[in-house]
Amino acid sequence: MRPFFTKDDFLSAKGRLPFSDDVRILGDPVAAGGSSAPSRIVYQPMEGCDGEPDGSPGELTVRRYERFASGGPGIIWFEAVAVLREGRANPRQLMLTGNNIGSFSRLVEDIKETAVKAGRAEPLVIMQATHSGRYSKPDGSPEPLVAFRRSALEKNGAPVTVVTDEYLDRAGEAIVRSAKLAERSGFDGVDVKSCHGYLLSELLSARERDGKYGGAFENRTRLLLGAVSGVRAACGGGFTVATRLNVYDGAEIPGGFGVAPDGSFDPAEPEKLARELARRGVSLINVTMGNPYFNPHVNRPFSQGAYDPPESPLEGVARLLRGAETVKRAAPSVSVVASGFSFLGAAAPNVAAAYAANGSFDLCGFGRAAIAYPDLAADILLGGGMKKEKLCLCCSKCTEIMRKPGGTPGCVVRDAEKYLPIYREFCGEGSK
Do 189 and 76 contact (CB within 8 A), yes or no? Predict the structure, then answer.
């Protein structure tokens, strides 16, 4: 397991990560479109794969969000919700429709009531609207719907369908339709998801695609920019339009978005896209990188996992934070969420506060850490800091469960009573 970090770890190592002893700035409110988040702490979208067959939230879904709400974040960035059935990542992925809107309305209301009853500020709840594209498994087996053929990602032998321009037109309409349902359900905003190799993210690097969605930058960004414009026009002025955005696909994906010829991060197109998103009314950008199916160390730095990462995890964290800084400089009017803090453990709020104090970005996002430690926000803001005995260990057991058909991921270590039996069921009786 990785060590717990101290201040000295960040003040050394070429000064890559700043550190502040004063974390009070994380308790400041932050604007998000027509709303305001009560603090700078964000719980990132962490999919539980535990919805009902019709896309409604299941029992474990409700439990997860009640735990998040009690923990006191400023924003709960609600997990991936499919906009089309064939774009579901698994048969239990959430999907909001006119037939199940009541279940989502009840959950959003429950989240806000739970927070208030726990003595926390009412969080903003942002719904992530997604199409899984290359990673679609609506019936449990791969049914890839791709923007273009990419040999490096096509090694499992599943038949691949390159979607037509007409299909992408319909996907854009579905995103707007889903956003309108989200607004009716009580969500404070919607994330037009464009990250981690899913359909809209993959289009950003579709240089070899013909037609209006491929080739030039204006074509590759057409679906994302058109969808956010459509959402802005269809929803009320107080409804937040956001995106979780890949700004760097990783050196392992040649020709990827934000990737220079030598594999390093090239900010030119991400900066240009950030400015275009701001111009179309996006007020909240959640910055991420990489592809969790192909190079997970890029978006989820780890020291122990399915393979040995080619770099220090701290290098990966630093790159994620530089990506957020890049977007903030390009689009200063937008509130920017930085990712990558879970690996830093108890030092995460100190690093986040140092960045926030110099205006590098506005909010700090916790993903795996929030699953393991749902009350981390309250401990940071009210309890004197994160407790080492509650920290996420970045052991990847939650991901192991998620990769198994039918698995419903959660923290095997910190929430063992609920998730250790699930881990043993799906990952083997001998699992520890």
Answer: no
Q: Are 22 and 353 in contact (CB under 8 A)?
A: yes
Identify each DSSP E strand in 21-144 by its residue range: 30-32, 35-37, 41-43, 75-82, 94-95, 124-130
- Taking the chain, what is the end-to-end CA distance rounded to the nearest angstrom? 14
The answer to whether residues 225 and 277 touch, using CB atoms and an 8 Å cutoff, is yes
Yes or no: say if 293 and 319 are a contact pair by the CB < 8 Å rule.
no
Q: What kind and span of H or E run contains 104?
A: helix 101-117
Q: How many helices (H) and strands (E) does the chain have?
A: 15, 13
Element (H, E) at 424: helix 416-427
Topology (CATH level 3) of domain 7-392: TIM Barrel (3.20.20)
Tokens of 53: 């067959």
Give CA separation, 192 vs 89, 179, 229, 311, in Å: 16, 9, 11, 31
List 286's β-bridge partners, or say none. Answer: 244, 337
**Alpha-carbon dihedral angle through residues 77, 83, 87, 89, given to the nearest 10 degrees:** 30
Domain range summary for the chain, segments of one domain joined by +: 7-392, 395-432
Asked whether the predicted pLDDT for residue 131 surpasses 50, the reply is yes
Q: Please tell me what DSSP assigns to residue 152.
A: G
d(Cα 105, Cα 313) in Å, to the nearest integer?
39
CA distance 96 to 23: 37
What is the Cα 306 distance to its own chain's centre?
Answer: 21
DSSP H or E segment with residue 287: strand 284-288
Phi–psi pair at 241, nearest 5 degrees: -105, 125
Chain position carrying tokens 């690093």: 351
pLDDT band at 5 (very low <50, low <70, confident <90, very high): low
- Please choose, from the candidates 219, 244, 245, the residue with its C-alpha nearest in 3D space to the C-alpha of residue 165: 219
Q: Which alpha helices (H) appear in 331-406, and where do they start and end?
A: 348-357, 368-372, 376-381, 397-402
With beta carbons less than 8 A apart as the criterion, state whether 329 and 303 touch. no
pTM of the model: 0.96
Dmax over CA atoms of the chain, in Å, equals 55
Convert the pLDDT of each residue in 264-291 to its tens digit.
999 999 999 999 999 999 999 999 999 9
CA distance 239 to 179: 10
DSSP state for residue 239 in the 8-state scheme: S
In the block, tokens 């679609």 appear at 136
Class of residue 235 by CB neighbours under 10 A (exposed 0-12, middle 13-18, buried 19+): buried
